[in-house]
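re: ur question from yesterday

yeah so i grabbed the chain u mentioned. its 142 aa long if i counted rite. heres the sequnce exactly as i have it in my notes:
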Amino acid sequence: MCQTQVISRRIGRIGRRSFDRRMRIASPMFVEKRGELSRILNEVDKLCECLHNEFATITQEDYRMFGPELRIVISTLKSLRQESLTRKELKTFNDRMRQQIADLEELDHDIRVFRVDAPQNKELQAAMNMLGSLDLSKYVEQ
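ran it thru and got these structure tokens back, copy pasting raw so excuse formatting
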């Protein structure tokens, strides 16, 4: 079982903070938004790294716990990026944020397909078992 609580806490923290920062970026007073945005992007990097590290141990039950929150975070980050696009001062963050959103979407998709749905797909399991039984040692260069 993966570190579901750690992942859920990270997602929850990012979700709350990104919504709060989204509201601050939308406000007319632009004082510390770059620092705020930089902090949230660093947190998203840590979340992506955690999801990558725990990918092999995530179960359907784990995903049921943090999956909906992860999709909310992705949606909130997309909104945050849209709002930051209107601010010239935040232009440097947009490429990084776009990449992080893409990374989170890819991770979410891969977890759903390979960790949640794949174990229930009998045909896929049979194909994987067949591939696992092949002797590929004669094809490996020595």
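noticed a couple things. The radius of gyration is 19 Å. also Helices lie at 4-26, 33-54, 60-85, 91-117, 122-132.
anyway ttyl
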